[in-house]
Amino acid sequence: MKKLTLMLSTAIFTLLLSVNLMAYSVQVDPGTPLGSYTSIGEFNTPGNYDGWDFAEWGNRSVSGGSLNGTHIGGYPHMARVASFTFEVGTIIEVRMKFDSGSGHGYWRFLPRIDGSENIYPGISAESAPKQTDGNFHIYRMTLDAGDTIFFGNLTSVRFNPDDGGSEGNNWSIDYIRLSDSEPTPPPGPVPPYTDTQSTRALIHCDSVVTNQWPDDGATNCFVTPDDNSSIRPAVFPILNSSNIFIGTPIAIDNSTIPTFKTNSPYTGEYLSFDGNDSIMVTNSWTGGDSMFMDFAFRLQGLPPLSGDNYMGLLTTYPVKAYIRNVDDVYGKVLMIIYDDAVSPHFFYSDKTLSSNVWYHLSFSISNNNVRLTVGSDSTGYDTQTTTIPSLLQPAITDVIIGNSYFGPTRSLKGDLDEIRWGIIVPEPTTLFAGILLGLAFLRRR
Length: 445
Fold this sequence. Notes:
Helices cover about 10% and strands about 40% of the residues. It is mostly beta strands. The protein folds into two domains: about 20-180, Sandwich (Jelly Rolls); about 200-425, Sandwich (Jelly Rolls), CATH 2.60.120. The strands form five sheets. Strands 13, 17, 18, 20, 25, 26, 27 and 29 form an eight-stranded antiparallel β-sheet that branches. Strands 1, 2, 4, 5, 7, 10 and 12 form a seven-stranded antiparallel β-sheet that branches. A hairpin with an 8-residue loop joins β17 (about 260) and β18. The longest helix has 20 residues, at about 1-20.
């Protein structure tokens, strides 16, 4: 009996000691995205469960860019084989949401290290503040020096989505990621933007003024000002042009004016587009092999999935930014880049976009290298890169905001703010090398 009591005491002490030594940090909605990571569940393809097996999990589905389920009693959980080295600084990050209200439980990550049994109580969001608003939130756990019980080679994992929750709870999991790199700061540039000599247009979407029409001189042209505080030539973003952008003269249509709204998350106001609105910026795109465009946007709708499935954000002659409908719930950014009139490159962002969330897009082409970043501080950022042989020189110099040149029905349902585009100035080292080469050439002469 004494031996049994001693064994139980030792087991309890060991359990308490292991729990007390678990020192991992807990963050909710961290302001910086992960650097490189290994995904063990992205759930972007309908019906694809990314290798997970399930038990006691009701209404299981992958749709809308997430894995969904309902608590039907017992201990709903899922498990899969996984491989990763757990050490000091390892990050487990989960983006998920529960029903609104405080009745949900918390998720628990139970790793199996070096083939052992799943380590209980594992790594959990139990100590994180409950998120009761029904929206997606990011939970980030970072292992500390005291978390030696988890150190080693991960061989599989069990994930409980709703420990301590009640029957009837619903949840959606956007992703589960593992990382051993420091979170990176938001990739620049980040709105609000400032004007420079290399900027061609900077629109803060804060006010409207009247101006003369480009063709007939009438003063009923409504313009939102271009911030040219760097003393570069200003352009004129016309709010009330018709949605027929090809041909002259430019027609007046006051029904296409987007609405100014207050409480921009950046500065002042923002512009809301109702699916029939647009802005035309004449003579505002210059040719060249390098360029950038940046803007903030928020979706309030999607293009028809069964139709054309393009919704214009910002379109120039050689580069066009669209929203594509993924599944009638979520969207993604599509960039179409032309190196000649018949050779478009279709370049997708991996970022899954929800409605009513402000994102910002940063796009650039320099030395034939293309870079696209889409995201937000709350949901993280995804960056994709590619190369192109060249960039088509513009036959049309106008820029269309909230619509598209050749498909005037591709109009935006959503909000825009802090819009800018321009050319990329060579890096100082490249510029200096060019100057040296030029001087050497002149000396030879």
